[in-house]
Amino acid sequence: MSRRFLSVFLLAAGALSIAADPFEEARKAFLPKYKSPEAKVRVEAVRALKDYNTKDGMDFMVPLYLLEPDPTVQQAWVDMIGGPVEGEGRKRLYEYCRSGKVETRIKIIRILGRGGYRDLMDLLKDLTHDGEPLVRRAAHESIASGKFGSMEAVVRAGLTDMEPDVRAAAAKAVGSFRREESVPALIKLLEDPKEEADVKTAVADALAEITGQKFGPEADPWKTWLEGRKGLRVTQADVDRALDRASQWMLKLHPDGYAGSEETLELEFYALIHCGIPLDHKNMKSAITGLYKKPMARAYNVSLGAMALADVSPALHQSWLAKAAEFLANCQCDNGQFWYGEATPGDTPTLAPPEITPGARPEFGGGTKALKRITVRKNPKRKIQKTGDNSNTQYAVLGLRACAEAGIDIQKEVWVECMAYLKSNNTNAGSFTYSPTSGGDYGSIHTSALGAYIVCRWYAGSGNRRDVVIDRGLEWLSQNFAIDQNPKHNDPKAWVYYYLYGMERVGVLADTEFFGKREWYQEGAKFLLSAQTAGGDWNNDARDTAWAILFLRRATRPVGKIEDK
Asked: What are phi and psi of 323, to 5 degrees?
């Protein structure tokens, strides 16, 4: 597209946008700079845009992205449009994906893998069934780009698509997850004598990505390899059996359901959700009722409650989640960390829990299609602590992230201040410490802070490319990697399961299956399956059992694709 044509479009877009919003200073400052023939100037203009999370904002930005001829400026648009877009802006962006010219839809769909939103996964799932083969292909490519592990079943279904190009894209997406459980489905395509050569090549590449082997597009070598792997790796069936036993043990802890006062109510409930227990089970119903009655008094409990209810249904529980977000924001300290918090009048919602439909199950990756936006702010009269600790900080960040995914708008300064503190707390060795006054670094607190940093970095709008903090943090994990102990802790056997759950979060959030050369999930899963008792628990302890469940289930969702610098 010529710069002359783009300039004509800019004149029209400028007239329309300024006429529609005469006080939009950012756009007026943007237009002269974007007419520059220098790509660097246009990139700076794009990155300086503010307040674009509206329908008009997307209608202003998307055409410019589509018309831009320079790759570096295109990438700047991708960072803006494909990044953390909220509210009406995201809704409008999705409309571009669902309808219109196929070429336009494809170009937008392919950049969506940069976002980690629940409703994005709903959208991409729908698009894998679109009537246009090119759109289905783009949807699979976007899923592969985002590495949305929870969508593995969706892309695996794409291996049976009628169009060979779509099957090839689905194979690539399956390969990007690097899950050995997918190998049989891929081998099945290689066994089909009628399958297209290009598809078989894509399948062979996916198998190589998953296994590290290079046997080519013939099925027999892969079948032989797979046969030799039996019993060597933890399979999904192994995990499912372990989780079933664990959930039955946990349900028996409360044969009459939850009273609502239990200290571990929120953690147990969150774990049971990830075991697949139906919501109309008496323990699940009583847990929800208990959450609505329990005072909001501690950051740990409120955060876990938010994570649980956001997984159940963000729409049904949005009012509770808004109060949770407000409580957690008020737990932020002067230095950006979070502390335990304390109950204050008005913190606990006076709400009745919604009715549960028989057979209802958690929504997980969906359910946010019609959410209203609720803004919460810190209470200026709240009790403010000078410092907190990185354990409370990580849970507060996880709870706020769950609320943000449920349509709760949290002040950007909350994320920015927390990110700034965590960055300052990152030592020269790449590790994190418990608090500003505690110089000790050890596995569980390191994974807590590193995971929180990745989340804050995303919501603070700092992008999703790895920075020096993430790189050094991952390097520390690779150098101090351990499974059956909490590395560098004064008591290496203390908080091991808490550390493993932290490891799972970092692995998912940093989009890596390895810390150094150590395959964290397989090693952790083998340890946990061997440590599980005949009764289904770990250490006869509800906390350890819950953390083991969350590790095995890979309960964390990515916030967006974390790319190398």
From this structure: -65, -35
pTM: 0.73
Backbone angles phi, psi at 515, to 5 degrees: -110, 105
Token pair 């607190």 in the structure block, residue = 445
Tell me how far apart the alpha carbons of residues 121 and 54 are, in angstroms, rounded to a whole number. 21
Domain boundaries, the chain: 236-552
The pLDDT mean for the chain works out to 87
Angle at 132 between CA 126 and CA 138, to 5 degrees: 65
- pLDDT number for residue 55: 83
Q: Which of 475, 481, 471 is nearest to 519 (CA)?
A: 481
Q: What is the pLDDT of residue 563?
A: 44
Residue 12: band (very low, low, confident or very high) from pLDDT cuts 50, 70, 90 = very low
Backbone dihedral region of 360: left (phi > 0), alpha (psi from -120 to 50 degrees) or beta? beta
Cβ-contact 453, 499 below 8 angstroms: no
What number is the average pLDDT over the span 222-232?
87
Nearest to 53 by CA among 457, 452, 407: 407
Which amino acid makes up residue 533? T
- What are the residues facing 214 on neighbouring strands? none
The C-alpha torsion from 383 through 388 and 392 to 393, rounded to 10°, is 100
pLDDT band for position 436 (cuts 50, 70, 90): confident
Q: Which residue has the tokens 């802006």?
A: 89
Q: How far apart are CA 490 and CA 306, in angstroms?
A: 32
Residue 368's pLDDT band (cuts 50, 70, 90):
very low
Alpha carbon distance 536, 530 (integer Å): 11
Burial group, residue 201, by CB count within 10 angstroms (0-12, 13-18, 19+): middle
DSSP 225-249: HHHHTTTTS--HHHHHHHHHHHHHH
The tokens describing 237, both together, are 């069936």
Mention every residue, 6+ apart, whose C-beta is less than 8 A from residue 358: 280
Mean pLDDT of 437-451: 90
Q: Is the pLDDT of residue 9 over 60?
A: no
CA–CA dist 140, 384 (Å, integer): 47
Comparing C-alpha atoms, which of 293, 302, 366 is closest to residue 329? 302
How far apart, in whole angstroms, are the C-alpha atoms of residue 321 and residue 280? 21
**With b meaning 16 or more CB within 10 Å and e meaning fewer, what string describes 457-475?**
bbbbebbbebeebbebbbe
Q: What is the pLDDT of residue 503?
A: 97
3-class SS at 102? helix
Name the architecture of domain 236-552.
Alpha/alpha barrel (1.50)
Name the one residue in this structure whose structure tokens are 């919460």.
Answer: 376
- Whether the per-residue pLDDT at 234 is higher than 70: the answer is yes
pLDDT-derived band at 545 (thresholds 50, 70, 90) equals very high
